[in-house]
Design a protein that fits this description.
With 524 residues, this protein is an alpha/beta fold. It is 30% helix and 23% strand. The strands form 6 sheets. Strands 1-10-9-11-12-13-14-15 form an 8-stranded mixed beta sheet, with helices on both faces. A 5-stranded parallel beta sheet has the order 3-2-4-5-6.
Length: 524
């Protein structure tokens, strides 16, 4: 199924429903019929610029309806959409644009100069479109002007499940960003299996803050279109603005990352806003501290929480911890089991196989550590420009690089990234396990644990800790605290106190940067 059909079907069912709410005061509210018409006219514009099947169309901007319009316009032409991280520096953006080699680049005003300075963009031959009114010129065409002057595109796409529709770059937190090739089936298989189609009688309003260059943002956009949901777009996350949008637009659903959720609850004006319209909060993209989700369950009464796990290479969620596992009611035994499950990533979704395998490629028994692997048509085809397709083995299994185990009830627990496991004197130590132990201390707000080279042990455990405001705790106290809850060899040898941890745009701690800054083999 072609992703363009998601929009066609939604238009047939709820043509008059607002597809988006955007703008400073929510003044931009195109309905689904208008959304489809604008995408069609933009397809004519892109076609006139020479875009055809297989050509790439790149866009760099914060969250706006232009992302969705440009994606579906590209899909109509059987072209390939390339969202570019708007937080990229020139070198990073140049790497992505060089790899993708787009025929057309669209950009918001603040990113146009960056695009023009990229060596990979030939300003004489690459068509460029300025997204904001009044910023065209110097070789940049006007987005609104071009759409207004264009006629609707009369063609129809021919791409199917196996054809590439998007190149999405990984975060590059551990290496140079890689272009993940995602197919129409990558997206349609997920929404068809997990999201109810548009319903004239079911009104849902989804607040989208996760950036649309990230798989979680695109998954939310695709789900919103298929489900006929109104997508309220916040250009970039800002806690007070987020709460204002929930209250003003009666938002029913939201996608969050753990850092966003904690920032909201810590905000001094949290209790000033009416957030009672919220029905579902999905969280993911980074590890959720147990203390944060427990607080959220208490402070968002009646909200159904969902933990969604996936990565760019899986195109969408592959495991989920459902709302019922966040409902901490029942017998003491049931509550204890649910609290333990809050530390898991849930169970595999329909339409995808997930297994835990050892290094020989064999499935391991329950509660035994291995690598999480996945298989199914929603996975990527491979990495753009890499014909070897080494990430997928001959049986079609994607090796995620995440280590974990499956318990007796089928719930999967993460224990860390394979490349981040600390090897101390032959013992394997999961950084996440030590971080969890540190964060169980009332004075610790968050922690990041790294392995540091050591001539005696090979590696030793170091921790970087951020403490709660107004608290006092010593290095010795924290080391002793971890020794009481972990095997002695897992306790940190050294703790450095920091004001904050380095994070990427989605709040994920950038462990390589922690290691680069604090990973000296002697004193931190």
């Amino acid at each position: 199924m072609n992703t363009f059909d998601l929009l066609e079907i939604a238009c047939a069912i709820v043509p008059d429903r607002p597809a988006f709410v955007a703008g400073e005061n929510g003044e931009i509210k195109p309905d689904f019929a208008t959304f489809r018409d604008r995408a069609s006219r933009l397809a004519s514009v892109l076609s006139g610029m020479g875009v055809g099947p297989g050509d790439r169309v790149a866009l760099m901007d914060v969250n706006t309806p232009a992302h969705a319009e440009t994606y579906f316009a590209s899909a109509m032409l059987d072209a390939i959409y390339v969202p570019v991280n708007f937080r990229s520096r020139t070198t990073e953006a140049n790497h992505m644009l060089e790899r993708a080699a787009p025929s057309v680049v669209l950009a918001g005003a603040r990113y146009m100069k960056l695009i023009d300075t990229c060596d990979s963009v030939d300003v004489e031959t690459t068509c460029r479109i300025a997204l904001e009114t009044g910023t065209s010129g110097n070789g940049w065409a006007s987005y609104e002007g071009a759409i207004s002057a264009a006629e609707p595109y009369l063609g129809y796409p021919t791409g199917d499940d196996n054809d590439t529709t998007m190149i999405m770059f990984t975060s590059g937190s551990t290496s140079a960003p890689k272009g993940v090739t995602l197919t129409h089936g990558s997206f349609t298989s997920f929404v068809m299996d997990n999201v109810p189609p548009a319903d004239p009688d079911a009104i849902e309003c989804n607040l989208l803050t996760v950036p649309l260059y990230h798989i979680a943002g695109v998954q939310s956009m695709m789900s919103g279109v298929w489900g006929g949901r109104t997508l309220v777009l916040q250009p970039q996350f800002e806690p007070e603005g987020w709460m204002e949008l929930v209250q003003r637009e009666n938002v029913t659903r939201a996608m969050m990352v753990p850092t966003m959720l904690k920032t909201l609850m810590d905000h001094p004006k949290f209790s000033n806003f009416d957030l009672s319209s919220l029905d579902v909060i999905t969280y993911g993209a980074a590890a959720m501290p147990e203390s944060v989700i427990l607080e959220a369950i208490e402070r968002f009464p009646g909200v159904k929480f969902i933990n969604a796990f996936g990565q760019t290479e899986t195109a969408a969620t592959i495991t989920m911890l459902p709302p019922e596992d966040h409902d901490l009611t029942g017998t003491p035994e049931e509550i204890e089991k649910k609290r333990r499950r809050l530390r898991s990533i849930g169970v595999p979704l329909d339409g995808v196989e997930v297994q835990i395998m050892n290094e020989e490629g064999h499935q391991v028994p329950e509660n035994e550590l291995g690598e999480i692997v996945a298989r199914g048509k929603r996975l990527m085809k491979g990495y753009w420009g890499d014909d070897t397709n080494k990430a997928l083995n001959s049986a079609g299994w994607l090796h995620t690089g995440d280590l974990g185990y499956r318990d007796e009830d089928g719930y999967i627990f993460l224990t860390g990234r394979a490349r981040e496991i600390i090897k101390r004197g032959g013992e394997m130590i999961s950084p996440e396990e030590v971080e969890e132990a540190l964060e169980s201390h009332e004075a610790v707000r968050e922690a990041s644990v790294i392995g540091v080279p050591d001539t005696t042990w090979g590696e030793i455990v170091h921790a970087v800790v951020v403490i709660e405001n107004g608290t006092v705790v010593t290095e010795t106290e924290l080391i002793e605290h971890t020794r009481r809850v972990l095997a002695s060899y897992k306790k940190p040898e050294k703790i450095h106190f920091a004001d904050e941890l380095p994070r990427n745009a989605l709040g994920k701690v950038i462990r390589p940067r922690v290691k680069e800054t604090f990973g000296g083999a002697q004193e931190l």
